[in-house]
Write a structure and sequence with these properties.
InterPro entries: GmhA/DiaA, SIS_dom, SIS_dom_sf, SIS_GmhA/DiaA_subfam. The chain is of the alpha/beta class and about 220 residues long. It is about 60% helix and about 10% strand.
Length: about 220
Amino acid sequence: MSELEKRLMKHIDLLVERYPSLESEKNSIISAYLLLEECYVNGGKLLVAGNGGSAADAEHIVGELMKGFKMPRKPRADFAEKLMAENQELGTVLAENLQGALPAIALDGHPALSTAYMNDCEPLLCFAQQVNGYGKAGDVFLGISTSGNSKNVLYAATTAHAKGMKVIGLTGAKSSKLELMSDVCIKVPQTETYMIQELHLPVYHCLCLMLEDRFFG
């Protein structure tokens, strides 16, 4: 095992130490991480969707990926130089304050687009429409659904695969349609909605920590 692999595994070991019930999902978390790593190595992006509390989780994930989580993520020296060459005054501030980002978009936002699409077309396809618009082969769609059967998430997952994207599901313990549609499904060992959501957060924090360590460590 390389030094990087050991470092990344420490995040999962700490997760399982803090949340022993997640031991059962260790391999799924590793598999999900590897899909995300491959996506970002190849210049792809992550699209995330869920409903209610899972929509809040989608936004939370984007916040951890699009700016520094635990690390400062200073801009690369060559980019900092380009910023200052563009404009000495503004570029200096940008070079000091911009942070490295892993591209990620939460599909619950964009109310003008979503309401227009829901009014004009088919409401349950509002996530799928955005996957159709943003997604390309090599990207990843992360569908968060405590039941694993949220129809708008299933339509989005179907669209993602048709676009050549990978699909990661984040669900509860019960078997579901999203599990069957996913390349990797992390099924946290709870069946009550709020308890499932309480375990989703440490899982995606772990994935975000691993990605930050890999790309900015």
